[in-house]
Write a structure and sequence with these properties.
Elements lengths: L21 H15 L4 E2 L11 E5 L2 H8 L9 E4 L9 E4 L5 E5 L4 H12 L10 E10 L9 E3 L2 E4 L4 E2 L17 E2 L20 E3 L2 H10 L11 H4 L5 H4 L4 E3 L1 E4 L7 H14 L6 E5 L2 H13 L8 E10 L8 H6 L6 H21 L1 H5 L10 E2 L27
Parallel strand pairs: 2-5, 2-6, 6-15, 7-12, 8-13, 13-14
Antiparallel strand pairs: 1-3, 3-4, 4-5, 6-14, 7-15, 8-11, 9-10, 11-16
Helix pairs in contact: 2-10, 3-8
Length: 405
């Protein structure tokens, strides 16, 4: 498969943060001014509501471009300017038929929540049968994969909802041999193995396992893009980190803080296990998914979307911790990890198989829905176990809707 136009004319940024160089900011301001003058609504002037089969969700421009520049039929067939979307990305793009659409939310939790809320409550779309395909890059846990690896999570855990003490002021102890300043909220001890004493409701979400397995199978045998990342991979002793990228099933963690290091990775991995009652396996870190899922749960409670139709794909653009003997700061800011281009490309390489599987098998599989075999929803059981599966996350006395035997 040839991936067109993922490399901008001036080259792809070497690191994720390099996309905000002055040249790109100036170009971005020009685009924002142009888009700010676009009238709200559909570009064809119609007031008809669009009912997509798939809504592709990207986070920033390079993630968006792999679908916008490569998907066939073109996603520029119909543009919809939606009030409340990011000023950087104020339009939803769709095929001419409206079967497949694409939104870019902008980065981090607040942007993701604001943009998704604007979309689902705009009433410009009927999203009641839409599959939300969230595709983005992430940091990857070397115990589960390598740069370029494609992952499909069942759980998304919000990593930052904890107490924190600055590392320079840590007390002694802490349990489980951890040395960070993080520990669970509303507890009386400095330990990271105690279930939180207070739950906000966005700590963890469970997705449709049957759907996850279906799309995982749709990507079987896919030839992923690999890059110059192999040299840096060899610095790791863990087999999963050293091998070429593949497709795997493991879970994701959300944090506005762009973190790195084995100490924090250990804390967040432990929190994932704790909040999923022992079943979650943390393998990727990103900045948006719990916010996006919170919006979709609330929209599902309002009968606007079906939460059983949510898919997350995250690709590894860099490792979440340094290899042995490498300084963590150097690893974060300067190390030639080489995984960014492959991670961007593989969003499309694997993701287009998922989108095409949904569209191609709509009548016989997807229109009626892929029935969940597990609990889906948030830690509060906001949706009330709609498919009859008792929650396997959270504790009953904190549920909004109690499960009855």
């Amino acid at each position: 498969m040839t991936i067109r136009s993922i490399i901008p004319p001036n080259g792809l940024p070497k690191y994720r943060s390099d996309r905000y160089v002055p040249r790109n900011r100036a170009q971005e301001r020009h685009v924002i001014r142009q888009r700010g003058n676009a009238p709200l609504g559909r570009s064809d002037g119609s007031s008809d509501i669009i009912k997509p089969k798939v809504m592709i969700v990207a986070i920033f421009s390079l993630e968006a471009d792999v679908f916008l520049n490569n998907y066939t039929p073109t996603l520029y067939g119909l543009n919809v300017t939606v009030p409340g979307l990011s000023p950087r990305y104020p339009e939803v793009y769709c095929t001419t038929t409206g079967e497949v659409c694409h939104i870019t939310t902008a980065e981090a939790e607040i942007n993701a929540a604001a943009s998704m809320s604007a979309l689902v409550y705009s009433r410009m779309f009927d999203l009641s049968e839409t599959y939300f395909f969230i595709g983005g890059i992430s940091g990857i846990n070397p115990n589960y994969g390598t740069t370029g690896t494609v992952t499909f999570p069942r759980f998304a855990v919000q990593l930052g909802l904890q107490y924190e003490i600055d590392s320079g002021q840590l007390p002694r102890g802490g349990g489980l041999d951890f040395g960070s300043g993080f520990f669970t909220q509303r507890t009386k001890e400095f330990k990271n193995n105690i279930y939180p004493g207070v739950i906000y409701g966005t700590e963890v979400f469970g997705l449709n396992e049957a759907l996850r397995k279906r799309v995982f199978l749709a990507t079987t045998g896919v030839k992923l893009v690999d890059t110059e990342a192999a040299r840096y991979r060899r610095l790791y002793s863990i087999p999963a980190a050293r091998t070429p990228p593949g497709v795997t099933l493991c879970d994701t963690g959300t944090s506005d803080t762009w973190w790195t290091g084995s100490v924090l990775a250990g804390v967040f991995g432990n929190l994932t296990v704790l909040l999923t009652n022992g079943t979650g396996e943390y393998c990727t870190t990103q900045q948006e998914d719990n916010a996006t899922l919170a919006v979709l749960v609330r929209a599902a409670a309002a009968n606007l979307v079906d939460f059983a139709r949510v898919i997350i794909l995250r690709t590894g653009s860099d490792f979440d911790r340094a290899p042995p003997g490498i300084d963590e700061l150097y690893h974060l800011l300067q190390a030639p990890q080489g995984g960014f281009a492959g991670a961007i490309a593989n969003i499309y390489v694997a993701g287009v198989r998922v989108v095409n599987d949904i569209v191609s098998h709509w009548d016989e599989v997807y229109k009626a829905g892929v029935k969940p075999t597990n609990y889906i929803g948030d830690i509060l059981n906001t949706l009330g176990s709609p498919y009859g599966h008792a929650p396997d996350i959270g504790v009953e006395d904190q549920f909004v809707v109690l499960v009855r035997s």
